[in-house]
Design goal:
The chain has helices at 3-21, 24-39, 52-63, 81-90, 96-118, 123-138, 154-179, 192-210, 218-235, 244-249, 252-280, 291-301, 317-324, 328-331, 334-337, 346-353, 364-376, 381-400, 423-439, 455-464, 477-507, 517-544, 551-554, 557-573; strands spanning 119-120, 575-576. With 580 residues, the chain is mainly α. The longest helix is centred in the C-terminal third of the chain and has 31 residues, at 477-507. It is globular, with a radius of gyration of 26 Å. Keywords: Membrane, Transmembrane, Transmembrane helix. The chain crosses the membrane at residues 21-40, 81-107, 128-145, 151-173, 194-211, 217-236, 248-267, 492-509, 521-540, 552-574.
Length: 580
């Protein structure tokens, strides 16, 4: 037989082998989920200069090589990661919501792969678990509904959260194999190369989270203590007589990981800050949660004189009057901040809370920024920072001189000091925020929002984003059918989520094999993340007067809940790997 005939036969055998490993059920689920997402048009809010439109405008300028564009008061008010994503998506002829969903499905498969790798079991049982788990994740109604369909940063933040906890699972698997291997002192022989890739991946993912939403620190609260606990657990085992020096040396792995992840995180943040320094004159990524503006407004929120008892009024008329008397910078803002009720930014608070003569925590920070720019004719970022630096210094000096009564600073722009919130209020709101995950407020009805008549803004939208308007039109039978499909999925998941969550929680109280305690560490990390985020939601919702479980901001918690359920189910159905 000729060589080319042998080559043909070997290729046929190779293709047959590959075909056997190809899971057509997974492909079907993947295609069906992506197809459903494709049929649902993006939700856009063109007239949203501080939110949706801001992200699109920054992407519009990036595409044209103008960095973020000419300076304006709100240009640097939001981190720019989502705008970079939209810039990349611009060169791919697909709706950005479809791209997000594609990455969501890929991360789902990665998470399921890491999950089954954590445990032992037959190939058939693992394959079945991946199929069922992928079906559960792929048709999660929250990723099809209105808020996830917005051309807005929340979807990217949710995706990055999902990836972060997926990579964290891989890190725990790696640490388990190092600290609990048969060698028992394998950590001594572990090369930095073995775990540097996971440190780099976690650092970069965290940078995406920070560059999407500043509040990303909640994932560190949920993971770093667990890493420390794993190390303590490894050196406290009775089977190994650890020498004191070895107890400390075994922690070198964690130290190296922190250093690697920190460097990976700082590189993109530093690059953006450096370019902003060159373009706008200030070394910063954003100017809402950092810099002199953040210092000035949080100091003002901490003034005790004239403080409102309403949790959603961060700086009341009484507090403003007290600071006007001691700060020339603040006094210049008075005509703009003390306007007529239900005018300007106060209209939003009036509609949301019924209080019409004040601006709530969701709007006062923006009102303050606008007032500063208009009253002091601020035209660039250096002037912006200088004004708020002067305002912060004057409030700080008045506090130190006891000209006004001051307490601790506010938690963030729009949020009072933590002690100003009733513990009962925070606990009640946290529980309700956590409970909203099971009622699936995050899967609110599918809408077809494209309101906005400003031709200039619409031109920016349509020149930047690829919209998928060709499949269905508003009020068509197909549109209504898809809306009903998402509602149907939501009704199913409302019954499934509480049941499976309780079953996954039971695993935390079941005494099993020694090494399986590491899986409990991961479950604890997930539940700690959910609790931490729920607490943050409680503060946020108390600050702005929104309904509890407001879906747009609760979305990042949703995949974490599903991860807890899936991993907990795996822990109860698949055997733990024998490492010792």
């Amino acid at each position: 037989m000729k060589n080319n005939e042998w080559t043909s036969i070997s290729w046929i055998r190779h293709l047959r082998t590959r075909a056997r490993t190809f899971d057509f059920l997974i492909i079907s689920i993947f295609s069906s989920s992506l197809g459903l997402r494709w049929l649902i048009p993006a939700t856009i809010y063109p007239n949203s200069p501080n939110d949706d439109y801001l992200g699109v405008m920054l992407a519009h300028n990036l595409i044209r090589g103008h960095w973020f564009g000419g300076w304006s008061p709100d240009l640097l008010s939001k981190p720019p990661a989502y705008s970079f994503f939209l810039m990349i998506a611009h060169f791919i002829p697909v709706d950005p919501t479809v791209l997000i969903h594609l990455f969501y499905l890929l991360i789902s498969l990665l998470f399921l792969k890491f999950t089954v790798d954590f445990f032992s079991g037959s190939d058939e049982s693992k394959k079945l678990f991946i199929r069922v788990g992928f079906l559960f994740l792929a048709f999660n109604p929250a990723v099809f509904a209105n808020d996830f369909s917005r051309i807005y940063r929340t979807s990217l933040d949710t995706l990055a959260t999902f990836l972060f906890f997926t990579l964290f699972l891989k890190l725990l698997t790696l640490l388990r194999d190092i600290y609990f291997s048969g060698d028992r002192l394998a950590w001594k022989h572990t090369s930095i190369k073995t775990y540097s890739w996971i440190g780099i991946s976690l650092g970069l993912t965290y940078s995406v989270m920070v560059l999407t939403r500043y509040e990303a620190i909640w994932v560190l609260i949920a993971t770093i203590p667990v890493l420390f606990a794993v190390w303590i657990f490894s050196i406290s085992r009775n089977e190994i007589k650890w020498k004191l020096k070895n107890k400390y040396r075994s922690g070198v792995i964690l130290i190296n990981l922190f250093v690697i992840a920190t460097v990976a995180y700082l590189i993109p943040v530093g690059v953006i800050s450096t370019i902003n320094k060159a373009v706008y004159g200030v070394f910063e990524v954003e100017n809402f949660f950092s810099g002199n503006y953040e210092r000035a407004i949080t100091l003002w929120e901490g003034v005790q004189t004239g403080k409102s008892n309403l949790s959603f009024i961060p700086v009341s008329k009484g507090q403003r009057a007290a600071v006007y008397a001691v700060s020339p910078a603040a006094l210049s803002l008075k005509p703009f901040l003390d306007g007529l009720p239900n005018t300007g930014w106060k209209t939003h608070n009036c509609a949301a809370t019924g209080v019409c003569d004040e601006s709530g925590g969701g709007w006062f920070p923006w009102e303050l920024r606008s007032a500063a720019v208009d009253s002091n004719h601020i035209r660039n970022e250096v002037q912006f920072q200088d004004f708020f630096g002067r305002l912060a210094d004057e409030i700080s000096l008045a506090c130190k001189s006891e000209l006004i009564s001051c307490g601790s600073s506010g938690m963030a722009p729009g949020a009072k000091p933590i002690l100003d919130y009733s513990p009962h209020q925070l606990l009640d709101t946290s529980v309700k925020a956590f409970g909203s995950l099971f009622t699936l407020e995050q899967a609110a009805n599918v809408n077809h929002a494209d309101n906005g008549q400003d031709p200039a803004q619409l031109k920016v939208w349509h020149s930047t984003i690829h919209f998928n308007y060709l499949i269905v039109t508003k009020n068509s039978n197909s549109w209504m059918g898809m809306a009903n499909t998402i509602t149907f999925l939501r009704d199913i998941y409302r019954y499934l989520l509480p049941i499976f969550f309780i079953l996954a929680m039971l695993f935390l109280f079941i005494r099993q094999e020694y090494i399986n305690r590491i899986s409990k560490f991961y479950l604890f990390s997930l539940i700690l993340g959910l609790i931490t985020y729920s607490g943050g939601m409680a503060i946020f919702e108390s600050s702005v007067g929104f309904n509890v479980g407001y879906s747009l901001y609760a979305l990042p918690m949703q995949p974490v809940l599903l991860m807890f359920i899936i991993f907990g189910s795996a822990a109860m159905t698949l055997r733990p790997k024998e490492i010792l």
